[in-house]
Amino acid sequence: MTSLMEAAAEVAQMVSDNAMLYYRKTIDVDVKTDGSPVTIADRTSEQKARDWIERKFPDDGIFGEEAGKTKPDAKRQWIIDPIDGTKAFVRAVPFWGSLVAVVEGDLLEVLERRLDLRAVELQRTGDPLVVVLRAGQTQDEVEPVLREVLGDG
User: Model pTM?
Assistant: First the structure.
């Protein structure tokens, strides 16, 4: 049986691979109701992740950046942002990532306390890099790690 971390990393890789099919290509950019951009790369990447999760973990819920929530009362939730940094993505700036989180228990409480487990797929010169962030880390603890990985710090 695949561990959740391995599964999250597999989903992050799948989402990133799909997004790369559109990277540095001319694609239409739509504007969501909140004013943020969305592309076919965002939508198809999230749908691939949803299809995979629904096959492998049929009892789990999914909260996606593009398609919203399914099974919001499920004990375990997958959180997907297929392209975090869509503005950079459409401009071919390599500071975007495909984010996948898996949380169990009360989702809001978990997120408020920042006790989430994440597999973050980052793109740096086209090579995927999975960064594992442990439960309990705060944004202040995580940001320096990501800056170091990305070469900004």
Answer: 0.69
